[in-house]
Fold each of these.
Amino acid sequence: MESIFREYDIRGIFDKELNEDIVKKIGFFLTLRNQRLNVSIFARGNRNIRERYTANLDAFTELRLKRLN
């Protein structure tokens, strides 16, 4: 897991280095610090990038709303 953290970003291959649980935990701790969050998702091959991008944004939004309530 340490290999996904870089100096200024977090990188990893979904379902190999990153999974839904890890992404949710990262999002949760970033919202605790009330940090601005920029999300970029890159896909290779025939992966459905729009679906994954929407799922990630939904997860981050849900975590932020939970923290605010």
Note: Residues 2-68 form one domain.
Amino acid sequence: MKFIYLSILPLILFYDANAQTANIANCGIQADEPPGCLLCDSILIIDNDIYTGEFPGPAYECGYIENNFWVAFIADGNTFSVDDYSYNCEKGRGTESIVYNQNFEPVSFCFSTSNLPGDINVYNLEADQVYYFMVDGFMGDVCTDEYHFKSGIKFPILDTPRLRPNSIIPDTICPGEKVLLSFDSLSSFNEILLGTSKNQFIEPDEGGLNFSITFLEPGPDSIFYYSKTPCKNGSVISIPIFVNPGFIQKVIDSSFCRSYCFPFRDTVYCEYGTHIYSSPSPNGCDSTFIITLREGIQVVNNETINICEGDSIPWMGQVINEAGRYIEIKTDSLTGCDSIFELRVIVHPQRTDFFTINLMENDTFLGRIITIDTIIADTFQSIFGCDSIRRYSIKVEKSGLDSRNVGYPGLHLYPNPNNGNFILMWEKELTIEAQLSLYDSTGKLILKKGNIQVVAGENQQHLPPNLPPGLYQLLIKTNKGQGNYRIIIQP
């Protein structure tokens, strides 16, 4: 089997036509150097766990690159917007992001969200140009990074390769004959894969759209081709041919639907079964064709789509905004076979959640310094992109009542817990054994751990999952004393 690859990538999209796009692939794989992988979906989940110590360009805006990955995307306008979620971070420090043009010049600020969700917005982009989105672990952290690209991106359009009218493929060819094929130009990031079932001689020209195929091996063969982008492959188009060195039979096995006739040369067959057709070919090659026709089958297509309350989607000439099951029946104009399209729509409603949280005076919650009892509303998005509201009723205790919060000498809590962990920093070299107890604001025991070995430097501890936001008290006991620490769980 022989293949020829056509790469249709206009230079307008390149900084360096050879280096900048040669390695662009689907983002199902990780890319630790530019240009990275090409963005093919509005949601990307990946780990920044590949270490690199070099950067091919000017000094990095956010600092030194350690654990990172790169994503190439096509701008769909002047602005670019993405939500950043970093979780399961090994060191609790999170990630930082930046956008570069193809000259590796930053076109955005350094966005650092630590472990909190972030809204990244970039302006003054040029539509239809390729940019690089780089994510780096802050101070060497490794996280699971989830990005929801909301606007400003476009995905490569998958074209169908089309033969030009002057490209004629005979169904019977004598050995040594040459067939010339020409294709129409394709959109950016499209490639054409062309081949033959047997080992025929294929020569493309320098432009990559014109081919010469010399048929050397006799017998049944086929010319097949399809287009692909880094995001998906197109349907294979296969054209049967026959290289006939003499009087040889060729079998054609095809399916067609009711009310449709099968044309072959100067004859039309309208009944299922086996038919015999004999005809001389050019250059003295005689052939006998055994044509077997079978009944085609109905095609059923099923799809399920999730939408948010108040949204609508276009489908088969309709605008759908309600949950339900929708069916459309169409007849293929070429074969006469009915196709059934079935769509199931699931509508996800908005919701409001209420929480009561106890804090100390002057604590920080959702970026605000809390001094009095108050109510805070926070809007967030579900996994389906539906806006929901969380309302927090904040009850404040005066700082003067917080006399319990006296830490153990030399043992510091850093940082406040995020994503279910916190770090105890022990300043001394001597290892100590401690007991940890975690209480909520009502004095209820939430967690108790004994025989904890605390060594010099960082000691990471994990909190129980799904703790409600609010104020907690951490008690640390050793054989030489105890210390109390306040912990605020952010939503």
Note: Residues 1-23, 399-404 have pLDDT under 50 and may be disordered.
